[in-house]
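Can anyone check this?
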Amino acid sequence: AEDVSIGISQGAMQLELSLDRAAMARYGLSVDEVRAAVAGGVGGTPVSEVIDGRRRFPIVVRLDAAYRSTPEAVGRILLSTPAGGAVALSQVAALRTIEGPEVINHEGGQRYVVVQANVRGRDLGGFAAEVEQVIGARLQLPPGYYIDYGGQFENQQRANQRLLLIVPLVLLLIAGLLYASFGTVRHALLVMLNVPFALVGGIAALWIRGMHLNLSASVGMIAVFGVAILNGLVLVTTVNQLRAAGQALEEAVRAGALVRLRPVLATALVASVGFLPMALSTSSGAEVQKPLATVVIGGLISATLLTLVVLPSVYRWLETRRSAGGTLSMMRQP
């Protein structure tokens, strides 16, 4: 962590009054009367206002600076007693100068202090988890006190919770659309196999560049998933069309991979080159752009290679097993 700071600054000098209630009782004074005398002499008392058109200016009367600038001067403020006499403030209260906070922040009716820091060289979530662990082990908070983590970490946690709900729903929706397109579960799951292909490349690219998986990188993963599934869909559809035209399984798989080679490579190349300036950016906002672009480029590279190499092999293996299973069932029939 760097640039650690506390959002409360000591150094404001304050005048503290400790009332002597026994002395106040002897003179017949109340706390409100003492407070009003001190507030009027030091802070001022509104007595009237000046009207200038639509503007109003209050007229405040208070003691001259020489009679309120030091604790001794404030202690000489005279208080009127019910008996008609006068007593100095120092006779019924002890005055001393203390150092206090300049600002006391409130939120939701509660006081709070902000401790903030910038995180560099590691992921934000891991840093926050370690801070929470260390504080829990070393610090015992008094009753009524609690610690809340905010800032970019709070925004990231909120976004991650949404992604945990949205990403599975999107993948389920894509799987449903693929099933409606192919009419078979195995082909739909085969195309969905491109998702971990893209995930491997995105994570590897982040590791190579020494970056962490953050919110922008997660958004980049979603973008890569779409391109990878599209490539797989086109490839499997092409192979199915070639088989429907009468080609054998081996020939259809090889021909489909060769036919889709150029479009798949062109798609990956165009997207990677388009994200390259973001991946190499050093300007303002690069901390958000670089993880996203890095994930997209790495995910496209792995998804493209595995789509053209692994996906046809898996397709051939699944269809071969299905054909062998169907032949075996027919042979067992009486």
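Reply from J.R.: I decoded it. Confidence is low (pLDDT under 50) at residues 326-334.
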